[in-house]
Design goal:
Two copies of one chain form a homodimer.
Chain A (H helix, E strand, L loop, with lengths): L3 H8 L3 H8 L7 H13 L6 H8 L4 E6 L5 H16 L3 E6 L4 H11 L6 E4 L3 H6 L3 H4 L8 E4 L9 E5 L1 H14 L5 E5 L5 H18 L7 E3 L6 H11 L5 E4 L4 H11 L9 E5 L2 H4 L7 E4 L2 H17 L9 E4 L2 E3 L5
Parallel strand pairs in A: 1-2, 1-3, 3-4, 4-5, 5-11, 6-7, 6-8, 8-9, 9-10
Antiparallel strand pairs in A: 10-12
The structure holds a DNA duplex (16 and 16 nucleotides).
DNA sequence: TTGAAAGCGCTAACAC
DNA sequence: GTGTTAGCGCTTTCAA
């Protein structure tokens, strides 16, 4: 590895001269600057990032803690974070908690030793269920800023990025009601999560408002890791009068569509379906699934920007903000 | 941030004593070790990783360069890498090239400045198409080891992890032939890639061997970013005599199944389908898609192990190895 | 215009 | 058993 010292030796100048020259310091003569830069280029010199980090006590690296990268939503958020981070001159270290509290704790601890300048985090399922947030609150005292997204925790004081889940589900449900659907089911495999609860409540409220009662038998909650297809098939066989479905998660909308079709439902004539998804998921079924788009990439971009803003703010203890990213309802084929 | 120095001041001993005590050096008395450790625990002392990295010139961080995290295969490989890396005491910095050569070059360059100890890399589409590999070969000279997986490049000399694509496709095709299928189509949205080419060739060879000629009109290659569903629908309308499909990628199998069903095909009676997928994808359709499983997580685990082995090998220039991870054909519902 | 020296936090060889 | 010192590669103050 080529270092300042080696360049300095070759040029018969001091290390500090080389350093200054490479940084275009006004202290150094043009001539020297050129000589130094030429040699540096010749050896393809890159300043050692670790040394810079130590010196500046700033790593320009962000820790991103995510529950599950196989969930397209999180994968997309990560894409947004990574891309925007790069343009801002940051790298990201990714930790996947696999929805466990222990890995979440460990990841925060392991990276809180100078490895990163801050965190972007979506809480794991286990964290939300167990209501154990000390490891996150504790970060406040280490002056490592945190931005939470999607899986945010009310009790933790930090910048946050969310979508308005409640309103999205309300709008989707009202959509189906407007189509004249009377037996609208709600299907979710994220009933443990805050977002899941909020989405369910929005569904219930909308149904209640229109039909004055909620039929609990039309609510299907599927635990993670259980085979959704079998559950959904049984659910439809038991409730053949269903004429609308609102899905609260990323996968069950597609499965509902295909299962119902297999059972003889015409879509959208007999059954309207809407789920959380994106274009690629929508494209997997015939007809294409109508969906609520969460603008996942935007969420990621907003998160990293909030974080970097805070890193750059002169410690002046800005108020924490919560940014709400707009959602969109897209594609009418299954409505 | 609490440092050795601060601990040393409080304890009225030297920094090196504290350092040695925390590392259980035999030079230090039990009594001191206990005193030091207690104070360290009290302050929740964590050694600064950046300082350690600088001192040891080893970061215990791996750069992972991936074309597209929204592709489930790569997401799964990443899960494998991340988990295994953590057990081995490594962090990973993830870069997503979005299938571009420029981002791939930039990522390698940016991380080759001491940020990481080595790389795990799957080449981008653009890299493979343009046959521009200098940025990868160049790493050899910087003693940063590389392990390539899946999208490997023959001309680059390094450790590699792959599956036997040729054999997998052969086996899948022969499977359909054995079911009596006579008009077997091949569908791929990865025709640009080496793996895509290899899979197509295996299909052709198998068909040729049995039926002595290949009907090129039964081969559908879809460029990335084009809407697969429309293409596949048109393809089936133009070729209603198709009775078998081998899909070379992660998504078209599901789309084929749903499109064909929508056009009136009974599956698997009228049409047998097999694709590259995993359980979750398979589960999205009715009947469930039969699939070739690439054991993506295993690929990731193998890659990080190869890399760490090389990092630990005493520079003795071990031969480069290529590990072939076994694939499996799973689920018979759509066959 | 250039160089010497200190220091970021840590480890390790070498004194004492 | 403990302390001193040097050094990892870099930036930056201060002196020349």
């Amino acid at each position: 590895m080529i270092t300042l010292k080696k360049l300095a030796e070759q040029l018969n100048v001091s290390v500090s001269t080389v350093s200054k020259a490479l940084n275009d310091s006004s202290e150094i003569s043009q001539e020297t600057i050129i000589r130094v830069k030429e040699l540096a280029k010749h050896y393809n010199y890159q300043p050692n990032r670790i040394a810079q980090s130590l010196q500046k006590s700033s790593t320009r690296t962000i820790g991103v803690i995510i529950p599950n990268i196989l969930n397209r939503f999180f994968a997309k958020v990560l894409v947004g974070i990574e891309k925007e981070a790069n343009t801002l001159g940051y790298n990201i270290i990714t930790c996947i908690t696999n929805e466990t509290l222990s890995k979440e704790k460990e990841s925060l601890k392991l990276l809180s030793n100078g490895s990163v300048d801050g965190f972007i985090l979506a809480a794991s399922e286990e964290t939300q269920v167990s209501k154990n947030f000390d490891h996150i609150s504790l970060l406040q005292s280490s002056d490592l800023p945190v931005v939470m997204f999607d899986r945010v925790i009310d009790n933790v004081n930090c910048d946050k990025v969310v979508i308005d889940d409640f309103s999205a589900l309300q709008k989707a449900t009202v959509h189906l009601i407007a189509k004249g659907r009377k037996n609208i089911a709600f299907i979710s495999n994220i009933d443990d999560l805050n977002v899941g609860k909020s989405r369910k409540q929005a569904y219930k409220d909308s149904i209640l408002k229109k039909y004055h009662k909620v039929d609990e038998s039309l609510i299907l909650t599927i635990p993670r890791k259980v085979n959704s297809q079998d559950r959904i098939k049984a659910f439809f066989k038991a409730n053949p009068h269903i004429d609308g479905v609102v899905s609260a998660d990323n996968t069950s909308g597609t499965i509902v569509l295909n299962v119902a079709k297999d059972l003889g439902f015409k879509i959208p004539e007999d059954l309207s379906i809407i789920g959380f998804a994106d274009e690629a998921i929508s494209n997997l079924s015939v007809p294409r699934l109508s969906y609520i788009s969460q603008n996942a990439k935007q969420i990621g971009i907003a998160a990293i920007n909030l974080l970097v803003d805070r890193l750059n703010s002169e410690e002046e203890k800005k108020e924490f903000t919560t940014r709400v990213i707009p959602y969109k309802i897209k594609n009418q084929e299954s409505l």
